[in-house]
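Cross-posted from the bioinformatics board.
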Amino acid sequence: MVPMAQNTPGTDAPATGSPLVKRGLADMLKGGVIMDVVTPEQARIAEDAGAVAVMALERVPADIRAQGGVSRMSDPDMIEGIMREVSIPVMAKARIGHQVEAQILEHLGVDYIDESEVLSPADYAHHIDKQPFTVPFVCGATNLGEALRRIAEGAAMIRSKGEAGTGDVSEATKHIRTIRKQIAELAALHASSPEELYVAAKELQAPYELVREVAERGELPVVLFTAGGVATPADAALMMQLGADGVFVGSGIFHSGDPARRAAAIVRATAQYDDPAAVADASRGLGEAMVGISVADLPAPHRLAERGW
Amino acid sequence: MLALQGGVREHARMLVGLGADVVPVRRADQLDALDALVLPGGESSTIDRLLRVLDLRDPLRAAIAQGLPVLGTCAGLILLADRIEDPAPGQQTLGVLDVTVRRNAFGRQADSSEETVATVLGPVRAAFIRAPLVVSVGEGVEVIARRGAEPTDTDAPIVGVRCGDVTGIAVHPELTGDATFHRALLGQAAVRRAG
């Protein structure tokens, strides 16, 4: 590392884009709610409600679902409009495997890129090589193996996928429980039979070094949020009780009757997730929740969580 | 430590490693038992909002005014400050440190970095994550760290300040594991306890 100024001992050149710096922003988002927004006005509502970050996208997942077609990265003008509106971090989505969309988002200066299954995949075999980017990435996962493959590619934050745009929290529950359970199993294996971690890595289809790290720590090396179907303060508190570090809320806020109030209520319930009185208070008088659609009624080709390899 | 949102776990891990008992504070009555307090990093606008929704802001101000030693990092520094140059709409602070801060003063996440900062306590390895900057300090506030220079270099940006037992730094030593400031805080706590 080149010293910034030869005559100032104790200082050195700033290292941008290191894993610590990329993961560090996610560390600062813990305990918070990240909200999908499609306009600067919605971003303003989200920041006022106490969101820790906003996700700028063209259509929320419920609308992507309803309208169909190919779903892509948003217009740079729209993303920049949101970046100008709020002072909290702004995330934006790129298609799975679409490194050029990611390059554009990095150029725009977004704070985090979500390589997201909510958009139409651009590559059915490969995800983006996220290591060379300075901007950090968050990626979805339905299980530990998928999470570790994304981390190996350079993801600095993981979100369990759930089933976006449904208002049905059952898949989010399943995915966060699966990831937590698989981490616990690795930790147990590390304690009892560490020599079996090699085969565990094979079964998880993940690099051995990462598998061993998770087994030793008993947690992922990056922050684990949850997403997909969270629509109420109680849903958000449930995710936190199940061990999520924080919550993404997509369609659940701006497809509800009173977005500002619901957004603030979900922020409060996420912070006080273990206090039933507080979550009860946060749940009062919020108006209509998003109508939603049961995951069980979704034909398999329309299940977004199955995108990602 | 204040445990509403943000980098709570990293601070807790370091303090436990130094032998401290760590109490996550989410209610005002939990403040009574403390010998020292950490205000962690996170989103300052979110933490401010939660402090007010949960009726914690005034008890926290009172506890600090009564001499509770405090270390605020990043968003914690913003909370301590009297004034924010560019607040989110409606954003408030605790106003216990006579300084003006500017949020996200060094740029967006792409500009976040890891580096060694010279401080009055010696070199500290730390991360700037969308970090704030102290743009001006009131009388009686000591500058304890500047970016890329010695604390005495008046041209360099101010990233650490101290007034009595209230310390605010713009950076995250809890991400790198540098315990310099945590040790100093526990030292203040011991003095308060003995006194």
